[in-house]
Design brief:
alpha/beta; 5-stranded mixed β-sheet; 384 residues; disordered N terminus
Length: 384
């Protein structure tokens, strides 16, 4: 299999789930319309149907009331530590007072009005409804499904992955990415034949979905060779004087052993936390949870960086799934595919730009626009 024809077998677009849309809500309205139509076509008398409907609504509100009472019995013991000593905060946390209170009054009043002629006392109806709802709560029959929990966590951004992605961006990427191109320009001036391809002057961030990270990239793939470190950035941060930030430059060798591709690359370090959590029994974090959170980490980080103006054009996220021990050079092929893709994207951009022959370029600008690949090459080259 040649390098030119190789493509990532697990492309990020196929691996990373998109944010959930509103299809579940649309399905709810559709089923509601179908249900109403079925009841209409059944030809049932209006009064019994209205009585049953209001009773079910009242039962749902009774469940919310009883559930709130059960939670109140626990939260009252955390009045100071969780609710700052405010009893109103406790009530607001246990009961949705703005919605369930009025609904319970309306449904109760409507049911009493429609109960005439039923022959059974109102207390019996309320008692049976309360008994049924308490049994449902006691047996845990109304626990949210895994999909509901996942959707609620994603919408409220309370997943582990959300916190890790934001911490990684605010505490690291937002600091180092705006300085990446400057560091590469300094290196290129000292080594003009190494970093000839400006469109790859980015920090390539590896996101393995297995969260298995090598401290030494050369051990992960023998076709990845360490070259040098780019210039350091020294800042005083969080009480640490002269904290050092730096990136390593690697040479990626293709399978033909002919060309070396320079690239600043590193792993997304927060994935180490996800991997450690899956190995610790106290975290109760399964491999399935780890994979889901790794995908969500990638998607969240991608969304954050897309909205970051200061980081634009300074990074390339590379999400991938390891192909197993048999594929010893899958990582280098993954990186090479992205490097070639960036060159193709740049070439297409240049082709779409209008040509203006009246514009004159200085000798410095001209040298930057012509890569070494356009010049006569020996059989073996350390640049491109």
């Amino acid at each position: 299999m040649s390098q030119e024809s190789w493509r990532p077998s697990n492309a990020a677009a196929l691996l990373i789930p998109r944010a959930r849309g509103g299809r579940a809500r649309l399905a709810t309205f559709l089923l509601l319309a179908l249900c109403a139509m079925a009841l209409y076509l059944a030809g049932e008398p209006l009064l019994p149907a209205a009585r049953s409907l209001t009773f079910h609504f009242m039962a749902l509100e009774i469940r919310a009331l009883l559930k709130g009472i059960c939670y109140l019995a626990e939260e009252i013991f955390h009045l100071q530590s969780r609710h700052h000593g405010s009893f109103w905060r406790v009530l607001s946390a246990c009961f949705s007072l703005h919605w369930h209170g009025p609904m319970l009054l309306i449904c109760g009043s409507a049911y009493v009005a429609l109960l005439h002629g039923d022959g059974q006392p109102l207390g019996l109806h309320l008692g049976l409804a309360s008994l049924c709802e308490l049994l449902i709560l006691a047996l845990g029959l109304q626990k949210p499904s895994a999909v509901e929990i996942s959707e609620m966590s994603e919408r409220s951004k309370q997943n582990v992955a959300h916190g890790l992605a934001w911490s990684y961006y605010v505490g690291y990427l937002k600091i180092v990415l705006p300085r990446v191109k400057k560091a590469m320009e300094e290196f290129s001036r000292a080594n003009p034949n190494v970093l000839a391809c400006r469109e790859t002057w980015k920090l390539h961030i590896l996101v393995p979905l297995s969260c298995d990270i090598y401290d030494d990239l050369e051990k992960a793939d023998s076709n990845i060779q360490y070259l040098t470190d780019l210039s350091e950035t020294t800042l005083t941060r969080a009480g640490t004087k002269k904290r050092v930030y730096k990136h390593s430059l690697y040479m990626i060798r293709d399978e033909d052993k002919v060309k070396l591709w320079p690239c600043a690359v590193e792993y997304a370090t927060p994935l180490q936390s996800l991997y450690a959590m899956s190995q610790d029994e106290c975290a109760a974090f399964s491999r399935e949870d780890r994979l889901e959170q790794a995908k969500l980490f990638y998607r969240t980080l991608e969304e954050i960086l897309k909205d970051s103006k200061e980081c634009a054009g300074t990074y390339r996220l590379i999400a991938y799934q390891e192909l197993g021990e048999a594929e010893t050079h899958s990582l280098s092929r993954e990186i090479l595919w992205h490097l070639r893709e960036q060159r193709q994207e740049y070439a297409m951009y240049e082709e779409n730009q209008p040509h203006n022959p009246s514009v004159t370029l200085s000798s410095t600008e001209l040298n930057l626009q012509i890569s070494d690949a356009d010049l006569p090459q020996p059989l073996r080259s350390d640049g491109f």
